[in-house]
Amino acid sequence: MAPRSRVIIDTDPGTDDVLAMLFALSASPEDLEVLLISVTFGNVNVQNCLRNVVTMFNVIGKEMRWRKENGLAEGFEMLKRSKPVVAVGADGPHPHHSSPEETWKQLFDKPPLDTLLTATAAKDAHVDPQAPSALFTPSSSESHLEMLRILDENPPDTITIIAIGPLTTVAIAAAYSPEIFMRARAVLVMGGAVTFPGNMTPVAEFNTIADAVAAARVYALSSPDPSSTMPLEQTPNLAHYPSKASLGERRLKIIKFPLDITSPHTLRRDEMEAKVDPLINKGSPLAEWTKAFLSATFLKQESLHDDQSGCSTGIALHDPLCIWHALTGESQKDQWKISLGRYGRGEDIRVETAGQWTRGMCVVDQRDRRMPNDGEAEVPGDMGGWLNPAKGNRIHRCVGTPGYKALATSILDTIFGHVSVSDRF
Q1: Phi then psi for 370, rounded to 5 degrees?
Q2: Cα–Cα 20 to 30 A to 132, which of 125, 279, 303, 358?
Q3: Which residues have C-beta within 8 Å of that of residue 3, sequence separation ≥ 6?
Q4: What is the pLDDT of residues 62-76, one digit of tens each?
Q5: For residues 14 and 26, what is the distance between their CA atoms, to the nearest angstrom?
């Protein structure tokens, strides 16, 4: 039976990215298949992001061996059916990185343990973070080419891209071949803040401000006229899109998960400990690692926020929310709420790329102005085409989910639910 969702994950692996990937890789193979993990830059450089991905697979491998040795269900059935490709993407908003072969070579040169995820894997899970793993296939091609290969080899509307990092690599793929790129079923984007404060500036969220031009370009492919929302600033490595006529009628479906909807979904320290502590007592490497890197993240939260302390300290599950939608967006469709704006066409959300204080801001038109119907005269003085039905972006924005508290439970049960220590120990 084919999985309900086949996905490409474009990620800058930090704490919640790793939770998102563990969530995806632990899912039933009937529900999800991860074809590609595209590694892009984020809070750390792309080489360290790649180290974090390899570390994760090594911990998963050790966990599966531990479960098998103790007569427990191994889990991670998806990885037994098909190994995802891991490819190296952009190393910054103006990519100039070394070749993928060089990045992989540097990875296995035994670098120092210089990220939270690799350090905790070595110390707490007793894993060599940089050891080769048989659970994935390393690619010598740049990840935007792997994205396009997968989209080209599969029928249109069968592959979903889940973008949980800066959109640089996604934008490169779209610029390289817009026609192939728009074969995607949808692009699920964790990024931006619409009516919610930013987390990097008062108005900007990290993934969007990290490469605002890339975000603006990707969003433009949802527009009836992509040129109407293309950023003024261009980058040398990104080609201009073809004309509207050359692109044809098909446009990109973007489902946006901004801070407005991701921030209320949290994982509390006491929830995490209740799930992993019994497994740690029995020797689970994955439980050890998960507690170690999440505990450090909880402490960081406490240092940043006066109202966070003790068992109730929580971390927002920004990136895992996109995985949750990929898993349940169809089967629980009545519980997900997607806004298509006042006119049902999609929300015209644009990304500011040039403002001194507003770069990375998601700009929406909050004026109480009527948009003309198709065929009516344009509104005089409509700067930017905000009131023109043939212009502007068409973003599907997530505004409701199956429940703020339900996500943490779903993640922990999916990753660790295969393991029942009560009957075996």
Answers
A1: -80, 135
A2: 279
A3: 29, 30, 31, 32, 33
A4: 999 999 999 999 999
A5: 18
Q: What CA–CA distances, in Å, run from 358 to 92, 351, 422?
A: 20, 9, 53
Residue 173, CB half-sphere, CA atoms under 13 Å: how many? 33
Exposure of 210 in the CB half-sphere (CA atoms within 13 A): 25
CA-CA distances (angstroms) from residue 201 to 76, 193, 357? 38, 11, 8
Residue 162 dihedral angles phi and psi, to the nearest 5°: -110, 110
| Distance from C-alpha of 230 to C-alpha of 248, rounded to nearest angstrom | 17
Q: What average pLDDT score do residues 369-389 get?
A: 82
Q: Are 3 and 29 in contact (CB under 8 A)?
A: yes
Give, in degrees to the nearest 5, the angle at Cα 304 between 300 and 305.
Answer: 115
User: For residue 368, what pLDDT is reported?
Assistant: 85
Label residues 146-178 b or e (16+ Cβ within 10 Å = b): bbbbbbeeeeeeebbbbbbbbbbbbbbbbbbbb
For CA atoms 190, 195, 197, 198, give the dihedral sign.
Answer: positive
Intra-chain end-to-end CA distance of the chain, in Å: 35
Tens digits of residue pLDDT in 309-331: 889 999 999 999 999 999 999 99
